[in-house]
Amino acid sequence: MPPPSDLLQGTLDLLILRSLSLQPMHGWGIAQRIQQVSREVLQIGQGSLYPALHRLEYRGWIQAEWGESENNRRAKFYSLTKAGKKQLEAELKNWERLTAAIALVLKGA
């Protein structure tokens, strides 16, 4: 298995917003989803994940609610707000623009 990749700065917010667009999740669930969907390439540590969740909550893009996890433990579940859905759309457009520009440079255009 190849080593985990470092995320581009700012990409973590996009990955979190995208993960939460599917359903509310607790922090560990978000990290697991990103890891599984990326086929184990992206691994998000707690030291990166929780500050990002707090930042997104402060910006009003996600909201948190206490609930019970699948193993009957108390956990904060995060979900997208209306502003978060708009931000996700903007972030996705920006990501597409950025990756297209990077592809042009890599092709030597």
UniProtKB/TrEMBL annotation:
Transmembrane segments: none
InterPro entries, alphabetized: Metal_resp_DNA-bind_regulator, Tscrpt_reg_PadR_acidobac-type, Tscrpt_reg_PadR_N, WH-like_DNA-bd_sf, WH_DNA-bd_sf
Domain Transcription regulator PadR N-terminal residues, every copy: 16-89
Alphabetized Gene3D superfamilies for the sequence: Winged helix-like DNA-binding domain superfamily/Winged helix DNA-binding domain (1.10.10.10)
Signal peptide: none
Family annotation (SUPFAM superfamilies): Winged helix' DNA-binding domain (SSF46785)
The name this protein goes by in its record: PadR family transcriptional regulator
